[in-house]
Design goal:
The protein has one domain. Helix content is 75%, strand content 0%. It contains six helices and no strands. Helix 2 packs antiparallel against helix 3, helix 3 packs across helix 4 and helix 5 packs antiparallel against helix 6. The radius of gyration is 20 Å and the shape is globular. Keywords: Signal. This is DUF732 domain-containing protein.
Amino acid sequence: MQFFRYIITLLTIVILALPSPALAFTEDEGFLSELRSLSRTQSEGEVIVAMLDQIPEVFVNAAQNYCEARRDGKSIEMIEFTQSLNVFSKLGNNPVLEKAALQAIGLSDGLAARHYCPDVGE
């Protein structure tokens, strides 16, 4: 009987220590939420937020690729340069989208280190 009380008490402590599902953010949700907030401070913030709403997976994948590249030893400058080339090749001649994408890259890379790869630093 004493053993069962101990188990029940232990399980209760563990359950109470777990975060509430309503309050728990996944890494992706936390990253996207912070990116959305910071994007609003940019000159092309509305465009960035619209992109975040429509294609959040692109930003998550880019952040994870950033971390992979950093772990492979690539410099932040080289990663941002490569990302910028990708932006220009895909967006063509749309200066507003290009500017928004470049602002998003700068924000996203800094947040990627915090949310997905704190081991590589910012």
